[in-house]
Amino acid sequence: MVETTENLRQLLNRSDMLVAPFVYDCLQAKLAERTGFAAVYMTGFGTAAARGFPDLGLLTMAEMVQNVRAIAHAVSIPVICDADTGYGNPINVWRTVREYEEAGAAALHIEDQVWPKKCGFLAGKQVIPLEEMVPKVRAACDARRDRNFVIIARTDALAVNGWDDVVRRAHAYRQAGADLIFVDGIRTVDDLKDYASKLADLPLLYNGALLPIAELQRYGFRLNIHTSSLMAAYVHFRDALRELKQTGKLELPITGHLFGELVELMGVPETEALSKKYTS
């Protein structure tokens, strides 16, 4: 979708940081759009969880693309997507980019973990050699048909090898053509400060919510994919189910209004109007 890729490029070139909340289905994406977010991030962790799997490289590229297509066609804002390791060697990465782009993504990130990968905040990660990742980044950049499609290179080397290797990898991936650099596994505010200072010369993505957005803005990140929305969805649904199980009811304010809001959000009025057009 050319309009969304151009839109994303413009958003990333603004002086203020773009915030894209985690979503894993169309309802969440539509809520984010309605709330006023200018982009969303399709989480691999959440996509796997929604299908009953841990984020351990168990979903296939085809399953991920299926979710990309659904979410991208549900909203008009750019969808930034997790593409794991690209699902193989540079040729596999090439196809992955083509599939994600055709499905409607505006951006994707590939990472330098060994496949099968692990969620970036789990212990025991391994990374492939820098010399193996650089051709994958080049293949990703070459594969896109739309030059505005954003390629993000992620490194998970921090927990494995430390900052010196992260810095080497980040600059090599940028040199290979990546539009943004994504260092995953930022666990503390000190990590965050190191990230911003050690790679200050590169366009950076930050994954997390260690500080309020207004404070994160000061560190110069181009993009923040915000994990809190994923955890909020889990916590609030879990607590609602516990309340229902324990008390036999849920205390929801203005339930009629809420249902009407949901009906409107999902496009019922527009669909009914369309139906009347062809049946009257």
Q: What can you see in these coordinates?
A:
With 280 residues, the chain is an alpha/beta fold. It folds into 2 domains: 2-236, TIM Barrel; 254-280. It has helices spanning 2-12, 26-35, 44-50, 61-74, 90-103, 130-143, 157-161, 163-175, 189-198, 213-216, 228-247, 255-265, 268-279; strands at residues 18-23, 40-42, 79-82, 107-111, 150-155, 180-183, 204-207, 223-226. Helix 10 links the parallel strand 7 (204-207) and strand 8. Helix 2 runs parallel beside helix 4 (61-74), helix 5 packs parallel to helix 6 and helix 6 (130-143) runs parallel beside helix 8. The two termini are 34 Å apart. The mean pLDDT is 95.
What can be said about this structure in brief?
By secondary structure, the protein is of the alpha/beta class.
Question: What is the topological layout?
Answer:
Blueprint: H1 2-12, E1 18-23, H2 26-35, E2 40-42, H3 44-50, H4 61-74, E3 79-82, H5 90-103, E4 107-111, H6 130-143, E5 150-155, H7 157-161, H8 163-175, E6 180-183, H9 189-198, E7 204-207, H10 213-216, E8 223-226, H11 228-247, H12 255-265, H13 268-279
Parallel strand pairs: 1-2, 1-8, 2-3, 3-4, 4-5, 5-6, 6-7, 7-8
